Amino acid sequence: MMSKQGWVAGVVALALSPCPGQAAAPEFPSKPLRIVTGGAGGGNDVVARMVGQGLTAAWGQQVIVDNRPSGLIPGEIVARARPDGYTLVVSGSSFWISPLLHDKPPYDPPQDFSPVTLPVTTPNVVAVTASLPVKNIRELIAVAKARPGELNYGTSGTGSSPHLGGELFKLLAGVNIVRVNYKSAGAAMTDLIAGQVHVTFGNALSVTPHVKAGRLRALAVTSAQPSQLLPDMPTVGASGLPGYELISPFGIFAPARTPQAVIDRLNREIVRVLTRPESRDKLFNMGMEVVASSPQQLAAMVASEMGKWRKVIREAGIRGE
Asked: What Rg value do the Cα atoms of the chain yield, rounded?
């Protein structure tokens, strides 16, 4: 697997050098585009459809959103697509985390894709069932240490951000909290609200409505800095666990070897769509903060995330299902 420095340097060099495909850039796009993403209704789907509608309006070409099961499948489809800019993938962190869980993954993120943009991020939230008598991170750690193996946390997939967030919490805090894995996020949330599960490290999009309704108690956001989405909530790092950071970023990628002129045009138009005030407001109200990065910034972020979580996966002994 290519190193972080190698992938980022390669993306930067490609961006600064002439590309044989540049001459064809004015002709792009001349046919419909396809965006492959996860299941309908999720954050990936929302971003994909917003981008698709914006590109259709700007270019007069239909953009088809192709919903597939999350995990490795969307990336596998796009890795095999023609590198011409007409097939893109919109995915969350499972896109680059899932390959770390398998000995022979069907694709390699640094090798098989051309980054387009980091559209949005959303912080995760450490929240507890209302019946658990803790009000902050220090109290949660204290209870977990006093009752090793008695507390549990819910997830809905191996390698998901709540799973990795829980394992990182255990490693840094030195506590034993048992993971309970569910077939769906909805089932995990139902048991958390009912008190069958004690803790979640879920994303703000899914947790915040239940916090506002009084069904859950939020303790802290998982981002390194306070989030505008939850401005009055402290971070985990500032609440007793220095060094803890977890975000749920999204990425838009094309197949590797897509001409740089096409990548640049996709980036410019997608960034324009995302940074409209109405787009920012809609995404913010759904729990997502617009980033709209350059391709190089997305490459750097993914490389950093893969390096960080590879260590956690190894230390926690996480394996793909």
From this structure: 20
Q: Give me the domains of the chain, ranges plus CATH numbers.
A: 4-119+250-316 (3.40.190.150), 123-239 (3.40.190.10)
- Distances from the Cα of 57 to the Cα of 1, 52, 62, angstroms: 38, 9, 9
Q: Give the distance from CA 273 to its chain's centroid.
A: 20
176 backbone dihedrals φ, ψ, rounded to 5°: -110, 100
- Extended strands (E) in the chain: 33-37, 63-67, 87-91, 113-117, 120-123, 125-129, 152-155, 178-181, 199-200, 216-221, 247-249, 251-255, 289-290
Tell me the per-residue pLDDT of 2-52, one tens digit each, with 9 for 90 and over.
455 555 555 555 545 554 444 444 589 999 999 999 888 888 999 999 999
- State the pairing for strand pair 125-129/216-221: antiparallel
Q: What is the DSSP string of 101-128?
A: G-SS-S--HHHHEEEEE--EEEEBEEEE
* C-beta of residue 218 within 8 angstroms of C-beta of residue 126: yes
Q: Model's pTM, two decimal places?
A: 0.86
